[in-house]
Each structure stands twice: as C-alpha cells, then as structure tokens.
C-alpha cells in the first residue's frame, strides 16, 4: 500500500507539533538533580531509587548515572483502572517492589505528576513499610491539574496542561524513545483507532 509506504519512510520527529524541552535542557537539568540528590544522600550513606514503570525508564537511568554514590534501584508498575486519560485515583499494582524498604532511604522516580493521585497512592503504599525516609523526584509537573497534595522534593520542569511524549512518556506505547519532550500533531491522535 502506497500510503503506508510513505507513512513508514518519514521521521518520527515529523509527528511533533512542537518541542517543549530539548534534549540538552533535559540533560542539564538531570545533571543538576543528580548533584542535588548526591549532596543530600551521600551523608546518609544509603539511597534506593524506586522507578515507576514504564515512563520513568529514560529518566531513571540518566538520573542514576548523574548521582555520585553507591545506590540501589528497584521498580514498581501501576495501572489506573479504566481507559480514560483522566486518572481515577484507583490504582492497581502490576509489579510491586522486590526490595524490603524498611529502614531504607527511598526516592520515588516518576516521569510526570498530573492529578497527583497515582503518587498519593504510591506514597501511602510505601510509607506503610516504614522506610527511614521517602522523597519524590519527578521529571515533569502539571501544576494546573493537581487534585492531590503531593510534596515534590526534586523536580525537573513545570509544564503547561498539554499531553506530552518523549523521554519515556508515550502515546499508545510509542514515542518513548524521543530524546526530548514534545507535543504531537493532532493528526497523530486522530489517526489511531
Ligand atoms: P496522575 O494524574 O495520577 O497520573 O498524577 C500520572 C500519570 O499519568 C500519565 N500522564 C501522562 N503520560 N503524557 C504521558 O505520556 C502526559 O502528558 C501525561 N500526563 C499524565 C503518566 O503515566 C503519569 O505517570
Ligand atoms: Mg503512561
């Protein structure tokens, strides 16, 4: 099919309406967050990064490499009930921690905080296991959409209320591999069934 052939030959970058945060800006900010976390946790002698799959993937590995102390990494996966883009606040645990976090210094690593309901749930879930401390590190924050009061201890960027993709964030499981944060053309949203 000719149309499909043309579709597959174009660059994924052509699907973007605009770039909100460049790869360079992300790398610079991640380095700064890594330095800040290093300064805070090196004196404590312990750090466990808990990444929230899958959106955290790129941020987690870059952040870990920007932190200069021996650290441990673990991952959890959650899913909101329902198919809407609006978070319901009801969170299902798809993959829990492998690590016993009692007495550990834990930092949750999230791609984006939107309503805050996912993190509010996760925070309560982890606090019940008595970590020595629990902080939150998020790459992106949409403050205009907040419904739960969540303290963000380490933040990359505030962004406007637009659906973003790239650097771990997806649309229909795609575009996570973009090195920047961008907004898709409307034709992309409307082309999927
Ligand atoms: P809440 O509303 O509970 O949800 O803070 C946060 C989760 O919603 C997803 N999310 C997005 N995913 N682009 C995405 O690819 C976005 O602009 C966006 N806004 C929210 C994301 O999974 C996040 O963990
Ligand atoms: Mg997601």
From TrEMBL:
It comes from the Bacteria. It is found in: Cytoplasm. Ligates lysine onto the cytidine present at position 34 of the AUA codon-specific tRNA(Ile) that contains the anticodon CAU, in an ATP-dependent manner. Cytidine is converted to lysidine, thus changing the amino acid specificity of the tRNA from methionine to isoleucine. Belongs to the tRNA(Ile)-lysidine synthase family. The N-terminal region contains the highly conserved SGGXDS motif, predicted to be a P-loop motif involved in ATP binding. This is tRNA(Ile)-lysidine synthase. It comes from Roseiflexus castenholzii (strain DSM 13941 / HLO8). The gene is tilS.
């Amino acid at each position: 099919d000719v149309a499909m052939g043309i579709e597959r030959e174009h660059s994924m970058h052509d699907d973007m309406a605009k770039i909100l945060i460049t790869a360079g800006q992300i790398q610079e900010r991640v380095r700064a967050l890594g330095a800040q976390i290093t300064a805070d946790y090196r004196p404590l002698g312990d750090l466990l990064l808990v990444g929230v799959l899958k959106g955290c993937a790129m941020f987690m590995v870059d952040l870990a490499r920007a932190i200069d102390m021996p650290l441990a990494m673990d991952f959890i996966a959650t899913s909101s009930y329902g198919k809407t883009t609006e978070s319901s606040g009801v969170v299902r645990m798809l993959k829990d921690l492998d690590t016993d976090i009692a007495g550990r210094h834990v930092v949750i690593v999230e791609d984006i905080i939107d309503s805050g309901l996912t993190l509010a749930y996760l925070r309560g879930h982890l606090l019940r296991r008595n970590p020595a401390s629990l902080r939150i590190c998020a790459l992106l924050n949409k403050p205009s959409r907040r419904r739960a009061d969540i303290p963000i201890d380490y933040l990359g960027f505030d962004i406007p209320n637009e659906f973003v993709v790239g650097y771990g964030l997806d649309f229909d499981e795609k575009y996570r591999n973009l090195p920047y944060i961008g907004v898709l053309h409307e034709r992309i949203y409307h082309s999927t069934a």
